[in-house]
């Protein structure tokens, strides 16, 4: 099956190991996988390791290619990583920055495609604005447009919703899900809202202290037991009026 599979991956910073012997079965193309876990559990480290920005050992197979064996330039042809915040002080117009990302990926200049993507994300009205004059949330949306225009095989999004209001969070995840399906990408997204994972993820991966706790269908993996083990909170999964699962947190488990 085509997709991403990870075998015995270890990653960290300097001599400090954050991810320890992580193995994950195939994450299929056309599907969104959400990474869940407390702060410092290794979610961002995993994305950075796959992108080639952290030291790592083990294997990360994208289809039939081990990403960890590729030079950074060749890996960048297949993988796009969107960090939590964009570089500061970039004096480019929004549309120009998206086209620059498009050309950097090796694609032909396609201004119509760039404008359509800005429209899809609800920021076409910002096309002629400069990046260094945008709000944090607007910059996140531009960063997402820059990532999607590249049409990678593997899309890595590190907390792309953190500066967005509730309406935009759902809208952006709808766009990411649709683009993932249409472009047949493997997409990994770090979020902290478990209800976002229940609504949009095909699979979830739960990490704690750099180790895999569980992975699979979010309707199965996300449970009161997993809340307690991973987050140290009491919670329950209930059904809303539309029949969809909804997480309710009751409180912190006292140690």
UniProtKB/TrEMBL annotation:
Pfam families in UniProt: ABC_tran
Cleaved signal peptide residues: none
UniProt cross-references to Gene3D superfamilies, sorted A to Z: P-loop containing nucleotide triphosphate hydrolases (3.40.50.300)
Protein name: ABC transporter ATP-binding protein
GO biological process, one term: iron ion transport
Domain ABC transporter span(s) in chain numbering: 4-234
Any one GO cellular component localisation term in the record: plasma membrane
Provenance organism: Jejubacter calystegiae
Annotated membrane topology: Peripheral membrane protein
Chief localisation class: membrane
UniProt entry keywords in alphabetical sequence: ATP-binding, Cell membrane, Ion transport, Iron, Iron transport, Membrane, Nucleotide-binding, Transport
GO molecular function, one term: ATP hydrolysis activity
Family annotation (SUPFAM superfamilies): P-loop containing nucleoside triphosphate hydrolases
